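Hi D.,

Good news: the full-assembly prediction came through. Inputs first.
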Amino acid sequence: MSLIDDKVMDTLTHQGDFIATPYEPKGPVVIDCDVKNIYYGDFRAVRDSRIPIEKNKVTGFIGPSGCGKSTVLRSMNRMNDLVESFRFDGKVQYHDHDIYDKKVDPVIVRRYIGMVFQLPNPFSMSIYDNVAFGLRLNNYKGDEEEMVVKALKRAAIWNDVKDKLKNSGLSLSGGQQQRLCIARAIATEPDVLLMDEPASALDPIATRQIEELMVELKEDYTVALVTHNMQQATRVADVTAFMGVDISKGGRTGYLVEMNETRKVFEDPEQELTKEYVRGEFS
Amino acid sequence: MSEVNEQMMPPKVVLPKLEKNLYEARAIKSFLLTAMVWGLVILASIPLFSVIYMLIVEGGARLDWEAITALPPAGFETGGGFGNAIVGTLVMVGIASAISIPVGVLAAVYLSILEPQSKLATTSRFLAKVLTGFPSILAGVFVYAILVITTKTYSAWAGGVALAVLMLPTVTLAAEEAMRQVPQRMRDAAFGMGCTRTQVIFKVILPTGMPGILTGVILAVAGAAGESAPLLFTALFSNYYMAELAEPTASLSILIYNFSGMPFENQIELAWAASLALVVMVLFFNILARIVGRSKF
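Then the structure:
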């Protein structure tokens, strides 16, 4: 703490209970995520962040480590329910449901709001079975093979795997595995894809392929993307939410600093903090 | 010319000697240790190979169709076999597997996935570990008390249950370990696809852990097939093919125990042949399970 001089300290976090100017969505909103508080046990991880996810756009989440961007993302399909001490206070409006309504089954939510994880995580099954997994889970009655091929083509991995669909999904390279996971996630044609730093474990070429893929995928899907890489956000995201972390009261609570069209956030941000972050003055 | 070249060369460094020196203390020590390891490996494999050698030499001669189908001979009779004992062993190991595999694997699901830290889980895990070292004759006495005395007869049921008691801890602990090895991110992926907890267990964790689970099951089956102590008080023995599960039943291990102590050449030969048959049976299951459970991916 003492390593950071006072001037930087002042701008690192907003004192008091700063709340970001609400972002005015230009298009239809698929998920309107309105976080009041997210707790892990007694630890307040995120506060006051309203982040609408617009249809057929890529919404990027950037911010320093520990700002809660992954936490917010994983709250949108109730993946955090698997963490025992997790508590969500707020509202996540998905079409006409609040997904935190007591009557809502998180299992069903996750079938509409798919997820791609930081580390590629194919099942130890064949490539084909990996992609067919979700279809079988949903008792898909149509032409399974057609859907699998379609998903693999959509995820730009068909040419790599078309001759070895029976091979293990784990036999692929890291970048291929991640595209396989994307194929698996889109095979069931979910509404929204949540991507939690999907390229952070990949080399630059594989990263580029995944980025191109995200831009293509938004034609059919709505994408929310957490990234640690600001350049990635400028390349891929239409709208960017910048989150900060408030360490002023001894805690580490993340909150939304600014959300706007990506170009605005990077070129003409409203907040001083955003300006410093996108200039690379802290991370 | 040569002078110029010498000037351009980098300054000479004194290189340490890189040649191998076999008389250095280090080298001698290394050689001695290597020799010791080889010696001990050979020593350890002597009993192993001599047992197999003796089994093949002594038992191989009598292991023919008659031996594996005929009934045990009495007294001075010649010929005969142990067909009923093979059937009995298969049936009782089958009963034991039918009880211990589902119970053990489901217990392992509880221990490794549902409530790994709960009081019940830590206690059962501890007891399972204690039970792996449980004297097998006590399993026999235990089942004698709860099944043989109450039903008033020795039976294949009782024998199977006694073997199940012995198999259960091995199956449980091996299955727990195998399921624990399934990476967390595969479970996350399954939850992210919209699986319920039951689906995560049955569609992802169990199939992924299957090779490890099967290894535990093979070990348990092999151990149970060779047990004689728990069957002494539960299945007893019989000289006839079994007609029902609720009567005294022959088994290979008890037959070996009985015949090897008899003063008749014929019976002793059959005991050898039965031993070989038992080893072949266990080997067969071992190979079968490895083929079926081989990790395809």
